[in-house]
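Design request, C-alpha cells follow.
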C-alpha cells in the first residue's frame, strides 16, 4: 500500500488527496527485488495533478498509476513545497532516495539540476529524467537515464492539418502557436508545426509567441487573442497549463485549437487534434524495465512515431476523410525516413 500522507517533512507535499488515493488503490501485488516490493517515485513540478489544469503532469502521473496497477510496484507521487528553503526538487528526490525507492523519476527541465545533485548523492539509486536527455544533467551521472520525445514528428502532421483546414476558408490564411519557455523541447514542437504548415501551403502566414511561462493562463490568453486579431484561425497550444488559456480563447472566438501533451479532444470538436507526448508510456516503460531486470542507465530512451511514444490525438469530426488519409501517408513517410522533420526553427519568419 502506498503511503498517502499529505505532508512529508518540511519540504514535500503529495500532489492531491485524489491522486494519492488513486495510487493507493492501484498499487499492490508482488513485483519484488531481493524479496521486497519494488518502489517507484515520481517527483512532480507542481502539487496539482489535473487533466484540464496541467496536461503535461497528468500524462506522467497516469503512467505511474498504470504501472502500479499492472506491474504491482509500490508507487508514490511527491511535489515540492514552494515555501521551503533551498531547492525543493532536491528535497523531494532525496526523500525518495533515502527510503530507499528503487527508481526516482523526475519530470521535465525544471528538475534537471536536482537530478544531478540527487543522483550523485545517492549513486546506488536509479534516476530517470522525463523529457530530458542524460547529457542535459550536469556531470551526467551514470545512474541516470534520459528520455527523448520526438514531438516534432506529430507536430509536423498537426501543422499540415492546420494549414489545410485554414486554406478551405477565406483569406488571410494564418495559423499560430502559443508556446511557453523557448527551451529545446518546446522549440521542437514549434519547429515541426511550422514545417508541416509550410509543406501544406508554402504561402501561409505563421505566427508564434513565447509567453515565458508554463503556468499563467492569462499570459496565454493574451497571446492567443493577439494572434486571432492578426487573422489566425488555428491556435496551437505548446505551453502546458498556461496553454489551457489559449485553447479557451480559441473556443470563445470560434477558431480551431490544437492540444498538447495529452489528447485534449474532450474540450470539444473545435480541437482539430492534439500533439501527444506519451509521458505515461515512458513511465510505464521505465517501470517495466525495472520489474523485468532490463534496466540500463547511462543513456537515453527514444520515443517517436515508430514506437508510438508520440502521435496525434483524436481528430475532429470537422476534418475530411481525404485529409485524414493524407495525414496517415505523411506519418508513414516520417517513420520511413522519407520526411525528416526539423527540430530547430528555420530563419524564415
Amino acid at each position: 500500500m502506498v503511503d498517502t500522507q499529505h505532508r512529508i517533512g518540511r519540504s514535500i507535499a503529495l500532489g492531491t488527496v485524489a491522486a494519492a488515493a488513486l495510487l493507493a488503490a492501484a498499487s499492490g501485488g508482488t513485483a519484488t527485488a531481493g524479496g521486497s516490493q519494488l518502489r517507484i517515485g515520481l517527483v512532480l513540478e507542481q502539487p496539482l495533478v489535473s487533466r484540464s489544469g496541467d496536461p503535461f503532469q497528468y500524462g506522467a502521473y497516469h503512467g505511474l498509476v498504470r504501472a502500479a496497477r499492472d506491474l504491482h510496484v509500490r508507487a508514490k507521487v511527491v511535489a515540492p513545497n514552494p515555501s521551503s528553503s533551498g531547492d525543493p526538487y532536491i528535497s523531494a528526490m532525496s526523500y525518495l532516495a533515502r527510503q530507499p525507492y528503487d527508481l526516482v523519476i523526475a519530470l521535465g527541465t525544471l528538475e534537471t539540476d536536482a537530478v544531478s545533485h540527487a543522483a550523485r548523492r545517492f549513486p546506488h539509486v536509479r534516476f530517470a529524467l522525463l523529457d530530458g536527455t542524460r547529457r542535459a544533467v550536469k556531470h551526467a551521472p551514470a545512474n541516470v537515464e534520459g528520455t527523448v520525445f520526438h514531438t516534432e514528428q506529430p507536430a509536423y502532421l498537426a501543422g499540415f492539418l492546420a494549414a489545410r483546414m485554414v486554406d478551405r476558408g477565406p483569406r488571410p490564411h494564418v495559423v499560430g502557436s502559443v508556446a511557453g519557455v523557448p527551451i529545446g523541447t518546446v522549440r521542437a514542437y514549434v519547429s515541426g508545426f511550422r514545417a508541416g504548415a509550410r509543406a501544406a501551403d508554402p504561402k501561409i502566414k505563421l505566427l508564434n509567441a513565447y509567453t515565458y511561462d508554463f503556468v499563467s493562463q492569462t499570459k496565454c490568453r493574451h497571446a492567443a487573442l493577439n494572434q486571432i486579431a492578426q487573422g489566425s484561425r488555428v491556435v496551437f497550444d505548446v505551453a502546458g497549463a498556461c496553454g489551457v488559456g489559449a485553447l479557451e480563447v480559441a473556443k470563445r472566438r470560434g477558431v480551431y485549437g490544437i492540444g498538447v501533451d495529452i489528447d485534449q479532444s474532450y474540450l470539444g470538436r473545435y480541437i482539430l487534434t492534439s500533439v501527444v507526448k506519451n509521458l505515461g508510456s515512458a513511465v510505464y516503460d521505465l517501470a517495466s524495465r525495472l520489474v523485468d531486470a532490463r534496466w540500463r542507465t547511462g543513456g537515453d530512451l527514444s520515443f517517436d512515431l515508430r514506437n508510438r511514444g508520440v502521435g496525434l490525438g483524436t481528430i475532429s469530426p470537422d476534418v475530411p476523410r481525404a485529409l485524414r488519409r493524407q495525414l496517415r501517408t505523411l506519418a508513414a513517410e516520417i517513420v520511413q525516413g522519407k520526411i525528416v522533420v526539423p527540430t530547430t526553427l528555420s530563419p524564415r519568419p
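Comment from the thread starter after seeing the answer: thanks! The first strand starts at residue 7 and ends at 8.
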